[in-house]
Specification:
globular, zinc, alpha+beta, 5-stranded mixed sheet, about 20% strand, Cytidine Deaminase, domain 2
Length: about 150
């Protein structure tokens, strides 16, 4: 070995180094799969599970506009359908040059279903990013625990 202790399978806190770069890259790659003939606004998302797996998604539009789905929800639904419900981080990518891409309100609420204490990496087309906690993106939120009161 290299003298280093083995890395835990699900390290707590934010993804670092190569893991973070992989998450960001997977969001950019997912953007290239976007089906967006109406908005021409491709978005990609990559979701990191507590177990260290990454699920990516893109926006998928429909001629019946209201049936379209965002990249963030696509990634979450893929993860859920594979048995994952605990998430650590999501990276979101678009072609916006001057602004960081942000999730819509519907996506923020779907993300909120799975907790408020995970990170969302908002990127620009040049790869720069800022990181926000989900609770910062959706303050005073309503979630599953509110239905138990």
């Amino acid at each position: 070995g290299n003298g280093q202790p083995p890395a835990p399978t699900a390290p707590p806190g934010r993804p670092q180094g190569e893991r973070l770069q992989l998450l960001l890259r997977r969001s950019r790659e997912a953007k290239n799969c976007a089906y967006c003939p109406y908005s021409r606004f491709p978005v990609g998302a990559a979701l990191l599970t507590a177990g260290g797996e990454i699920f990516s998604g893109c926006n998928v539009e429909n001629a019946c506009y209201s049936l379209g789905v965002c990249a963030e929800r696509t990634a979450i639904q893929k993860a859920i359908s594979e048995g994952h419900t605990s998430f650590r981080a999501m990276a979101i990518a678009s072609d916006l040059g001057d602004d960081f891409i942000v999730p819509c309100g519907a996506c923020r609420q779907v993300m909120r279903e799975f907790g408020t204490d995970w990170d969302v990496y908002l990127t620009k087309a040049d790869g720069t990013y800022i990181v926000k906690r989900l609770e910062e993106l959706l303050p005073l939120s309503f979630g599953p625990e509110d239905l138990k009161k």
